Amino acid sequence: MILQGQTPVGSWSDHLVYNTANSVTVAADKVFASTGSSIIIYDKVFAELKKMSRIDGLSETGISTISWSEENKTLVIAYTSTNIDLLKNNIIYNIPDISRKYIPGEKKINKIRTNGKYAYLACSFGIVVIDLDKREIHDTWKPGNGSEDEKVWDIAFGKGKIYAATDMGVFSADLSNQGLAYFGNWDLVTLLPNPIARYTLLTFSGDKLYANLSDTLLAGDQVYVVGDIGSLFSFTSGIFNKSFDNAPAGFTFSSGATVKYYDLNGSLIKTISSFGWAVPDISQAVVDNADIWIADINSGLVKGQNMSEFTALTLPGPVSNSAFSITSSNGKTIICGGATDNSWNNLGRPLQISVYENNNWTSLTSGTIIDPLRALIDPGNVNHVFVSTWGGGLLEYENNNLIKQYTESNSPLQTIIPGRPYVRICGLAMDKSKNLWLTQTGVPGNIKVLKSDGSWIVNPLTINAPTIGDIITTALGQKWIILPQGYGLFIYDDNKTPENFDDDRSKKMLVQDSENQIISFVYSIAEDLDGNIWVGTDQGPVIYFNPEKVFDSDLKASRIKIPRNDGTNLADYMLKTETITSIAIDGANRKWLGTASSGAYLLSPDGTTQIKNFNEQNSPLLSNSIVTLAVDNKTGDVWFGTSKGVQSFRGDATAGEEKFKKIYTFPNPVREDFKGNVTITGLVRDTEIRITDISGNLVYETVSDGGEATWDLKTYTGRRVATGVYLVFCASKDGSQSCVTKMLVIK
To answer: In which order are the strands placed within the sheet that holds 118-123?
Structure first.
């Protein structure tokens, strides 16, 4: 059987935020809420909560708004790119026409309203009408005065008419009119006391039109009602409305801190201004018989039973979709959501640290500390963690509890502005003696060491660079430090005596390849299992194969050449046009590379073969912009922090054990409907594997990727094996260790 936490090799998982919602729509048996990056689906019949993201087939990640058509049983999903998905009977249909079409100026979908067999999209350039039966664009309409493309903010229907809220007033037209692509067939609603103004929200209820006038010069939004005459319906200073929505017996106004529910006559029925357990920040609210469903920015999808008992319906996930760095080791993954800009100035993001372990998420937050940059998991104690911050110093956690914050007041760490909290730390690394090495920026003495006994070593060395970035400690004891913004690398060797500075060696250098080309910009660094140093630059990856010689010679970086195989005998550098933002080494010594604009790559141990390339076009990758990535040596999971959120891919390589340990296969037994690969885990590195049937006939053999191997259940002839028990014989590369396990396969 598949044990908890053992996702199949090759499968994807999203790790997005599910405790926020910005739009909600209700079907007869389901409720859909958009988090901005995915969809939450609540089954009202079975009280089940599910999610749908790009992993599950959505075309994109950034969602602007959603709407449900009860007549067509279709969910309409609009993306920030103006791409459109239609979800019907669990099948997703894509309509990319708007996103592909060149439209000058802003291109945005502000609101979706459904009526009959059509979905009407209020866009920054007019109204797009989608035929939900044919799943195609039916027409594009242009309400306005014809002087320019009017932004349409919202749409309403009533008495056979369609109403459009624009920056130049509210316009109406008969729905039966076939010429609404022409602005002249639209009429300005002149009964409004201020007809030529910016109107952003509409609803039609009880034979009356309600229109929201939004002016940045006013102290709040003004709502007008139009029947036989037009008049002011409501105004409260400081109230800015976010959504108007029809209800079976009236309508709702959602305005951040409150929802107001009115009957068909415009009389106030209910005001919701508290959930009892949280202060609302409401984007939209939809009445459903006696209940109300609320999309709340801070609480996610909220069910208001009888409009009085409120429950948040959320799914576990990280505290934020922002991932500046990811650290993963021994089954624990930590995401730091702080950040800096390109000049390494603070962005001022609140402390957002997300910890994933044993299928559970824990959020570490603070009201005063900002911009966490890196996390380090103690190799000897997975519950002991350090976090660097860009201003708040060094944080030390035990069992997810902050036990100490190191600043200028209680340690040798320095602030760049005396008396102010600007203790800027980026890189963290722990050596074999459990000394924690860290890099400080903007102060004299850029390298500090926190010893395991709690004492400090203050290295007097000051590096001539404006920013001191990531640091790694190598098998040789060297410290390699990235100097961002084009300053190259700094290498330091304390000669295994960190408290004695007299025998130290150091070197600052730009990357120079074997053809003497200088590469200044370095973004990432990692040491592989053979002791080679891989460096990510703005011109692809480079490798230092003999790091022990870095102080003795003008050490050149090697670049991987890939033959063109076109008869010219020419070759190109591997990924030479890509900026390598992140590098991680898996258990098979393969290299995972994250890039700024073309997704993620998996290279063979020597880098000469591209094994995989994940991008938005060929995989569920959330974004081609990879900010950070990490590999969990225990589970084989590859974590991607993208510009649009976090996700993971179940890789096929784990760190090899020193000895065979708890060898098993999963899934086991293999059921007849299983379509993936069987995984054999608990192996030593480069284990030689032979799989036979119970009679000893060889059906498959392979070599493990690190501590794991996979089998597609096929023989050498390409046929799936027959039902039976199969033996897995495992032997270390030198033959000194061996073991055997077995599995049951059902065809």
So the answer is: 109-115, 118-123, 126-131, 136-141
Joined together, the tokens standing for residue 142 give 């242009």
Beta strands in 206-340 (DSSP E): 208-213, 222-226, 230-235, 243-247, 250-254, 259-263, 268-272, 282-288, 291-296, 300-305, 309-313, 325-329, 332-336
**Residue type at 596?**
A
Taking CA atoms, 210 is separated from 131, 145, 173, 203, 229, in Å, by 27, 21, 16, 5, 12
**In the numeric block, which tokens belong to residue 48?**
């089940």
Mean pLDDT of 577-598: 97
Using DSSP bridges, classify how beta strands 250-254 and 74-79 pair: parallel, antiparallel or unpaired: unpaired
The answer to whether 392 and 371 have CB atoms below 8 angstroms apart is yes
Q: Are 721 and 713 in contact (CB under 8 A)?
A: yes
Q: How many residues does the chain have?
A: 747
Question: ∠545-551-555 over CA atoms, to 5°?
Answer: 40
Q: Give the integer Cα–Cα distance in Å for 378 and 733.
A: 30
What's the per-residue H, E or C state across 133-148?
A: CCCEEEEEECCCCCCC
Q: What share of the chain is helix, strand, coil (3-state, %, to 5)?
A: 0, 50, 50
Query: Whose CA is closest to 626, among 607, 609, 602, 650?
Result: 602
The token pair at 161 is 């008419």
Distance between CA atoms of residues 445 and 148, nearest Å: 60
Write phi, then psi, for 97 (nearest 5 degrees). Answer: -55, -45
Q: Measured at the alpha carbon of residue 51, what is the angle toward residues 46 and 54, in degrees to the nearest 5?
A: 150
The Cα 728–Cα 711 span in angstroms is: 11
CB atoms within 10 A of CB 367: 7
What are the tokens at 224? 């007008």
End-to-end alpha-carbon separation of the chain, Å? 16
Whose tokens are 């106004």? That residue is 253
Burial of 734 (0-12, 13-18, 19+ CB in 10 A): exposed
- Looking at residues 516-524, what average pLDDT do you find? 96
Radius of gyration of the chain (CA): 30
The whole-angstrom separation of Cα 139 and Cα 648 is 40
518, 538, 545, 555, 717 from 551: Cα distances, Å: 18, 25, 14, 8, 54
Helix H, strand E, coil C: the string for 310-362 is EEEECCCCCCCCCCCEEEEECCEEEEECCCECCCCCECCCEEEEEEEECCEEE
Beta bridge partners of 25: 32
Please report which confidence band the pLDDT of residue 4 belongs to, taking 50, 70 and 90 as the band edges: very low
**C-alpha distances in Å from residue 226, one per residue of 194, 229, 266, 458, 667:** 12, 6, 12, 73, 65
pLDDT digits (tens, 9 = 90+) for 137-183: 999 999 998 877 789 999 999 999 999 999 999 999 999 999 999 99
**pTM of the prediction?**
0.91
- C-beta separation of 510 from 521 below 8 A: no
Number of Cβ within 10 Å of residue 88's Cβ equals 15
Q: How far is CA 733 from CA 382, 532, 570, 704, 711, in A?
A: 30, 22, 36, 10, 19
**Tokens coding 33:** 């809420």
Residue type, 655: A
Work out whether strand 518-519 and strand 522-527 pair parallel, antiparallel, or are unpaired.
Answer: unpaired
**Per-residue pLDDT tens over the stretch 229-245:** 999 999 999 999 999 99
CA-angle at 534, arms to 579 and 492, nearest 5°: 115
